[in-house]
Amino acid sequence: xxxxxxxxxxxxxxxxxxxxALEMLREAMGQEGLDPxxxxxxxxxxxxxxxxxxxxxxxxxxxxxxxxQPPSADAPRGLTCRVYRLRDGRASPLPxxxxxxxxxxxxxxx
Length: 110
Fold this sequence. Notes:
Layout: E1 7-11, H1 18-31, E2 40-43, H2 47-53, E3 60-63, E4 66-67, E5 84-85, E6 91-92, H3 97-108
Helix pairs in contact: 1-3
């Protein structure tokens, strides 16, 4: 349904940044007029789960089934912490908040 994208949050318990990323996602969703409680949570617990879900690391955020910041094709898949690139080029365990808000806004149709 237009205006209400499906937002998925995939995470691995051993990743120390997943809880902050979830907080960031829910905050961004609220700012973009989306229900922060509508996030579909998927804990990735095994290597088989990671393989089956094409999991490039924790945390992963998908909007309407697509990674909002697709990793490179050769990026490893599995039980690992994910590395994002911020707008200023620095590596971070969290996505750039502006990139996340822009992706949500675009998915919402704004």
